[in-house]
Amino acid sequence: MLGGIAILLLTGFLAHALINNLKKTFPAIDAQWLKRLFYYHVFLGFVYYLYSLFNASDSRFYFRKVIENYRGPGWLDFYGTSTTFIEFISYPFIKYLGFSYMAMMALFAFFGFVGFVYFYIFLKENIRFEHKLFGFDLIKIFLLLPNLHFWSSSLGKGAVIFPVIAIFFYSISRLRQRIIPLVFASIVIYHIRPHIMLVILVSCLIGFIFSTKGISWAFRLLFITGAGIAFFFIYQDVLTLVGIDEEEFLTQGLNLSRRARELSKATSGIDISNYSLGLQLFTFIYRPLFFDAPGILGFIVSIENVFYLFITLKLLNVSGIKFLFTSNAIVKSAFFSFLTVSIALAQVSGNLGIAIRQKSQVMLLFLFVVISFLDQQKMDEWKRFMLRRGKKQSPKPEEVP
User: Which of 22, 106, 263, 364 has the CB geometry, 3.0–4.6 Å to 8, for a possible disulfide?
Assistant: First the structure.
């Protein structure tokens, strides 16, 4: 208990130091709000910790495997991709530093919080105007959604892949200055979920190739070349992970049904492995919706899913569909990444309970696409407003009528 509290205090100090340091580089961020967000994240992490004490939880299995030398007596015995990589990360903290289960939960909660910090910066850098819903800042509403915090605050894949996806998109939004964090994020995403790294690479390739805005051809070519090289090295590992050989991939494509059948044996939720792709995708993003909520947690998630449906309606119109085709490379990359990752995870999830957990990794990408559309609408309003006034100058949000 004392060890867990000590790590919580230490990570709290690190979180505040990180925010203060980033404030110097990004003056527009609300540092005090981010610090309050840390306590909110820690609270939901504590809720997950209590939940894990009375329910089956992957985090306890990760901890036990390291304690019991499940893969061997040495640290390198735990090196690998997918589940093994989380054990590999955990090993030195548990074996060398003597971290307890509670201390590991506190540490991984900090990892998850880093993701919210970098998603916040990513949103602030790429959204020009302030957008409100019921009088509240829409970006802050996005970052307060409880399901995102709950599943990124525990010892497991979610707490690691969430921040590196945030760092990945933070990096490609200013590609010239952020090659090193981009490479770091890509390597970690690959080690946690190789198939997710594959579809993100393909999605970003599509976004960069079919965009004429925001990025020079030189850096576009650099990114495409790097992504192509990475694709060459990782695609065989992805095929191995999902259980098909190269010849099957060339003739049948990436089929994740075997992984779905394995995960459908999990104990919570509704089996979705036999749904059509469209229904799997809808279920992954928007269910449960009260009538099929698995327990109290599912009921809380249902409230969040209603919000997702409401936000989606903002994009489902002629202007919104047109925006998806005319937007810049960052928006296209985020949209295609959200769509392809959702399709991949919807097939792999197997049941609704797992889908609730896994979608937290990518929902902020979709919310970014929606708020980017709202931002473009506001920019169009500003241009019309300035045209009427006969002015030509940089946009100022306060001048938009």
Answer: 106
Domain extent, residue 345, equals: 199-401
**Which residue has better confidence, 341 or 22?**
22
Question: How large is the angle between the packed helices 217-242 and 179-192, nearest 10 degrees?
Answer: 10
CA gap 251, 401 in Å, rounded: 55
End position of a domain, from candidates 143, 162, 192? 192
Reply yes or no on whether the pLDDT at 388 is more than 80. Answer: no
Q: H helices within 193-294, ranges in order?
A: 194-209, 217-242, 246-252, 257-263, 277-286
- Residue 96 burial (CB < 10 Å; 0-12/13-18/19+)? exposed
Mean pLDDT of 77-90: 91
Q: Do 203 and 316 belong together in one domain?
A: yes
361 in the same domain as 313: yes
- pLDDT band at residue 285 using 50, 70 and 90 as cut-offs: confident
In this structure, are 157 and 287 located in the same domain? no
178 and 293 both lie in a single domain: no
